[in-house]
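Section 3.1: Structural characterization of target chains.
Under the original work plan, the team committed to producing a structural model for every single-chain target entering the pipeline before any wet-lab resources were allocated. The record below documents one such target. The sequence was received from the expression subgroup and is listed exactly as submitted; it comprises 473 residues.
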Amino acid sequence: MFLYHRPRPLSRTRGDCELVLVERSEVTPRLMAVVSGKHSLFYSVPAKNASVPSLLIALILLLIAEGLEAESVDDGRNQLFVGILRDEAVERINQLAKISDADGYLERTFLSPASVKAAELIIQWMQDAGLRTWVDQMGNVHGRSDALNTTAETLLIGSHLDTVVDAGKFDGSLGIICAISALKVLKTNGKLHKLSRPVEVIAFSDEEGVRFQSTFLGSAAIAGQLPASALRTFDKNGATIQDVLKENSFEGSDASLLQVKYDPESVWGYIEVHIEQGPVLESLGSPLGIVEGIAGQTRLKVKVSGSQGHAGTVPMLMRQDPMAAAAELIVNFTVDIRAMDDDDRGAIVSEFSRQVYQICDNRMVNCTIEHKHTAEAVHCDSELSQQLKQAAHSTVEKMPRKIKGEVPMLMSGAGHDAMAMSHLTKVGMLFVRCRGGISHSPDEYASDNDVWAAGLALLHFLDRHVSGDYMSS
């Protein structure tokens, strides 16, 4: 008799195969062609009532064949991951980088023509991943996959689609694309609708605050932190946020702003994938890092004013020269103050203000200090951060170049949408290595494999939500 191992056709299940015994007379050229494939094994059993050693050999061959079949399935799965999480993701990041309001450099501001076009493309990609899509009253783009458990809170994943002037192509876009790509893999594997909780990707309409000098417009609205008075904020051309919303077919009313706000009871948590915008991960040789917290910020605008004095008639000690006071100030302070401890930051701001006023008093000039922006420090949720760390660790073990040591934990000195979203729910962030720590520049760069690592880590994280491992968290 003859024995051969035959993988089941079109099977993706590990080790899903069968052992076939046929009479010698049944071995035809057609059968030989079938069993001569890459992962089929053919073995001659000497008799119909085969001996124990012969059957043991057959069993060993079967186990080998199962290993080969599993390897084949793993290879196919890995190629699928690479195709979606790296190759397609990088191509989509490049596509978004071509959508700009400026010629020769990248610029997309709140609800500009380029931002609207980018939003339309993101909607197409979300739908390609099997997500239900809509745009809210602040221009935020949403893509959602519902869950088997209709009462479970929603996991939100997001980043921003707007840019600074003369921007890099990874800031914001990376987080949106990685989230869509990870969910597309789940769709391709038939797992998307097996999620234990709903998952929603949000592309925020404005984080940078370039157009209206007010950061986090999109995420602050969702978190219920954007006051109705913000709708009356002007841009440099005299248009208000309300005007711009109405020009783009949104209501632009106080009531419509309330519609954007999410109920905290409906949200499980928020995570964000973002380039580090610093050199720490690169110096450590790690593609990924977990954010422990985001520094609080205070931005001040200082105005010094005095009065002119006639040359030769006003003594130097009686002159009210604002330039002399400003020169003394300029060499002694910075107006962008950041710290993880809000009390420390507050103390620094107070001491800074005291010294500014003292110098101005000594020079007999007037001084005003305007608080342009204040954001409290945010501490990322420890449990959520640990889950992201586990996902990142599983990822780096699978990368072509093994990474030794722990996935690093680090602080963020830059602001992110997670700061606004922390008023709504617990937050976690995954940082991705960027070359030289350069950001907000055309030189901003993350390698294709690091984009892949980010998407794969997010996929590992979401896989746990398919199994329900995080339901009790």
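Residues 1-19, 30-45 have pLDDT under 50 and may be disordered.
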